[in-house]
Write a structure and sequence with these properties.
Strand content: 15-25%
Order of helices and strands: EHEEHEHEHEHEHEHEHEHEH
Number of helices: 10
Strand order of the largest sheet: 3-8-7-4-5-6
Helix content: 25-40%
């Protein structure tokens, strides 16, 4: 069987707990993977809004998740509030298949899933079943994008956005810095605008050398372009499999 990425050095920048499957698939294609998580995820500085939302989860018609981390954070808050069972009576909408799998891993059903990894795409598939005045809970990253929130509010929904988690730059291990200097990657994968910003802050664009950049979706691709970084390929869906295919396209054209 052909290994399509044989000998290709690939930089993966997303947190380790969210990249194990991706790294495995890349290595299975023959790639040499350098995993450098540039962000660490933390609970909100003020947990009270998330706790209050969990305690009153029955008031919401919808819960919208943009990431697996948002799912995990709300489920933990529901467990502490003793209201986990109530969530089964709320409609759940998600961005992307990985978030959907995380929801289903808790034994819950996904009512709506976006075909693309953007909030705008999720709103479009939610819209037919969304009534004005619907109460919507959005457990999000502190620094998360506002496109789904803005679209829902414009529709007339009553949106409660709470910080489910936050991220901060993770220290770059000296050995990773040395490896980037001695063996620059052929390809660098970016899974969020925040990760791209963290890379430039921690490492600098010169460490990318002639690496071809792959984005997990159009939002990240736009952020890379805004930062002056050319994008070689964009994944068609925000999944490990689609990222591998985008990497192959970046290498082979």
């Amino acid at each position: 069987m052909e290994r399509r990425l044989e000998g290709i050095r690939i930089l993966v920048t997303r947190p380790r707990e969210r990249s194990e499957e991706l790294c495995f698939l890349l290595e299975d294609e023959g790639a040499e993977v350098l995993h450098v998580p540039l962000l660490e995820l933390l609970p909100p500085e003020d947990p009270r809004p998330l706790v209050a939302a969990a305690e009153s989860i029955q008031r919401y018609k919808w819960v919208v998740f943009a990431s697996p981390s948002g799912v995990d954070a709300l489920m933990e808050a529901l467990r502490e509030a003793g209201t986990v069972e109530v969530l089964s009576r709320v409609r759940i909408a998600v961005v992307g298949p990985r978030t959907a799998r995380t929801v289903e891993g808790y034994g819950l059903n996904v009512a709506v899933e976006s075909p693309e990894g953007t909030g705008a795409a999720l709103y479009e598939v939610m819209r037919p079943g969304l009534d004005p005045e619907d109460e919507v809970l959005l457990p999000a990253a502190e620094e998360g994008r506002r496109e789904i929130e803005d679209a829902l509010r414009e529709h007339g929904a009553r949106v409660t956005r709470v910080t489910a988690y936050r991220s901060r730059p993770a220290p770059l291990p000296p050995e990773a810095q040395a490896l980037l200097e001695s063996s620059p990657p052929d390809v660098a994968l970016f899974a969020s605008p925040r990760t791209a910003e963290a890379f430039l802050e921690a490492v600098g664009r010169e460490r990318l050398g002639a690496a071809r950049l792959v984005a997990i979706g159009p939002t990240t691709a736009a952020a890379l372009t805004h930062l002056g970084l050319p994008v070689a390929s964009v994944a068609e869906r925000p999944t490990p499999e689609a990222l591998v295919e985008a990497t192959v396209r970046a290498i082979r054209g």
